[in-house]
Every structure is written in C-alpha cells, then in structure tokens.
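Exercise 7.
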Amino acid sequence: MSAVTSIHLVEDALLVSIQDDVTDTEIMDLQDTLSHRIADETVRGVILDISALEIVDTFVGRIIAQLASISRLLDAETYVVGMRPAVSVTLVELGMYLPETKTALSLTHALSQLRRG
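Solution. The predicted structure, written as tokens, is:
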C-alpha cells in the first residue's frame, strides 16, 4: 500500500485514509486490497477518511463511489468522515450523488453508528 492511501483495522471496521496525491494506479491497488481485506477479516464497515483532501473533482468522487460499491457488495456499510464543507459543496456542484455511503462527522461517530448496527 502506498503512502497516499492506507487501510487500518479499527474495532470491526476498516479505516481507509485517502490522501491528496492519489493516482489511478494506487486506486486500483486500493480497490483490490480493500475487497480482499473486507472478505478475509469479515468487517462490518468501511470508513473512508477524506480529511486530507483539500479539493475534490470527478475523479475523487468516482473513487468514493467505487469504494462504497465494493464495500456494499461485500456486505460492509460505508461511512465517509472528515469531509470539509468546501468538499461537500463541490461534490453537490459536480452532481455527485453517493447513494451507498453514509457520512459521519468523525471516526468516533462512524464507529458508534456501526456498533448500533
């Protein structure tokens, strides 16, 4: 896994940190690694931390949607945390609708929601 993305097990969820400089190749690697980890570790959720992202574009929006779809197909709920107000406005302006994701204000909040099941 590269320095621009990382996956860590936190309780029964995988925390995926996405950094600013992520490339197509790294995303392909991340998708493959994430799908195997969800299946192998039987997690209840995936938490996508995008707090390092200053701006978003359609590429980043597509990344979030793809990771959420992979997680959902493998029976793991997806939460996006660390979204800055400007990022949310940009996603709306780009017409990015992320139906398979939930949002939480923090990692703690997302974990709390996952515990409630």
